[in-house]
Amino acid sequence: MSTANALIDTYRQDRPQSVDLLQRARAALGGTVGHDLRHFNPVPLYIKRGDKGRKWDVDGHEYIDFLLGNGALLLGHAHPAIVEAIGAVLADGTHFGSDHPLHIEWAERVQALVPTAQRVRFVNSGTEATLLALRLARAFSGRSQVLRFDGHFHGWHDDVVTGFQPPFEAAGSLGAAHPKDRMVAIADGDLNQIEDAFKQNPDLGAAIIEPSGASWGRVPLAADFLQGLRDITARHQAVLIFDEVVTGFRFAPGGAQQLYKIDPDLSCFAKILTGGMPGGAVTGRADIMDLMNMSGDPQRDRFQRVTHLGTFNAAPPCAAAGIALLDLVGTGQPTAQADALATQLRAAWDKVLEQYGIAGYVYGASSTFHVYFETDPDRVQKASSRSDLHTLEAGRLKGMPGALIDAYQRHLRHRGVDIMSSTGGVLSSVHTEIDIAEATQAFEQTVVALRDEDLVITLG
Ligand code: PMP
Fold first, then answer.
1. Is 322 in the pocket of ligand 1 (CB under 6 A)?
2. What is the pLDDT of residues 48-102, one digit of tens each?
3. Phi-psi category of 260—alpha, beta or left, where left has phi over 0 and alpha has psi -120 to 50?
4. Nearest residue to 217 (alpha-carbon basis) of 389, 339, 364
5. Residue 1 confidence (pLDDT)
6. Do 248 and 255 touch, CB atoms closer than 8 A?
7. Please, what's the b/e burial string for 303-314 (b: 16 or more CB within 10 A of its CB; e: otherwise)?
8. Which listed site, 80, 191, 262, 271, has its alpha carbon 20 to 30 Å from 226?
9. pLDDT confidence bin for 444, thresholds 50/70/90
10. Atom 12, ligand 1: which residue's CA is nearest?
11. Is 125 in the pocket of ligand 1 (CB under 6 A)?
């Protein structure tokens, strides 16, 4: 048996309770798991408990957690301030279907941190946030098309599910309407192409982008690209939407827009916003957001308004958790701590690649990390050092072989480390130097195993 298959067997044998749950899940759950990224061979993770930067599965295995609720848990699992805030409201009712004081307070906290949040509208997820932002942008511009960039992820609704995974032009999902007439898709990086897109498509009235670069920075943006995009969209009176679902309250207390000093017209938030509870928000310019206002004029209110509903928008436990979270983020401490830990982790993991001469490098902004393994023998042969391998090409950074990523994730989990997606993850403010040291050891063993399985290449 190959060593790779031996690991699959060992991994399965170590997890009898998980295997039982998978058996039941096959008969109970549509698609077997609750989110496409939770599929895992031979058995998904079934988590029972989390505390700070760690979590435990049903079979008692402990993991250093760099998934952190898909990036939602900047303060780690079960932070006392969040748990207390949620507990304090539960006995008074979990949901009214009416507005309530905490709803307004939560919006004010967002306004205090996000420079462009003249108004805030809460939704229940990042997907709902981009759905509403695109509707607002189309309504405000009076133009039906929105510019999107290949590889950028904006949730799973029909307009955006196409274009985040290669091949970018192919329909993103069976059953989804192909958004050919509603979205204009191009590669990021070249400002001239954006100018051309506006010239060629008179019905283009907005642009949406992950300000970190595609997939929370797996494909970093070229310097000055965001500013160029801001300038061009402003010139064409197009609405610029920052999808800050991952970067919001992480890249800086006021998100990537604060870190990079660029003002979008609308922004989408979710994840960290609600302190680990479900939630999301669209924020932005009052003249755009006020399209949702009621005027009392029946004609205008029925035909000249943006409609938005949602049973659970800003439910009390979500608002309470969000307020507690934003109070802490507002101190600047969580961002600073998570950033410092991520800097340490990136340096330590990159040193491992250097030590073994692996063709690859570790990168990432703020409290994120990504690992790129170069698997193109031509590029490796031409490189005189690892720095020659750096690239901004989406096709490369998002195109690492599936078998490599699969094995990498399995080796790490087997050694007690869980990551977010592909090869990367996020740090929290409550990870520790011990977490970094142990994760680095697991990474080193993983890299050696991948080299021995010929999944990664060495230089020279
Ligand atoms: N936008 C971005 C940039 C995201 O990373 C995600 C989630 N990974 C979403 C939108 C969708 O958010 P949700 O999963 O809450 O629907």
1. no
2. 999 999 999 999 999 999 999 999 999 999 999 999 999 999 999 999 999 999 9
3. alpha
4. 364
5. 66
6. yes
7. eebbebeeeebb
8. 271
9. very high
10. 126
11. yes
Let me know the angle formed at the C-alpha of 204 by 198 and 208, rounded to the nearest 5 degrees: 95
324/31 Cα distance (integer angstroms): 35
Which residues, including other chains, have CB under 8 Å from residue 185's CB and lie 6 or more apart? 147, 148, 149, 150, 162, 163, 168, 169
What separation in Å is there between the alpha carbon of 153 and the centre of ligand 1? 7
Residues in the chain: 460
Q: Tell me which long-range contacts 62-65 makes (C-beta under 8 A, separation of at least 24).
A: 62/416, 63/413, 63/416, 63/417, 63/418, 64/416, 64/417, 64/418, 64/431, 64/435, 64/438, 64/439, 64/442, 65/418
Q: In what order do the strands lie in the sheet with 62-65?
A: 47-51, 54-57, 62-65, 417-418
118 touches ligand 1 (CB under 6 Å)? no
Distance 66 CA to ligand 1 centre (A): 17
Distance 202 CA to ligand 1 centre (A): 29
The pTM of the full predicted model, rounded to 2 decimals, is 0.98
Residue type, 291: L
Give residue for tokens 């599910």.
161
Q: Return contacts of 226-230, CB within 8 angstroms, 24+ apart.
A: 226/260, 226/262, 227/260, 227/262, 228/191, 228/194, 229/191, 229/194, 230/262, 230/263, 230/264
pLDDT tens track for 262-299: 999 999 999 999 999 999 999 999 999 999 999 999 99
Angle between helices 433-452 and 3-13 (to 10 degrees): 140
Cα 161 to Cα 163: distance, rounded to the nearest angstrom = 6
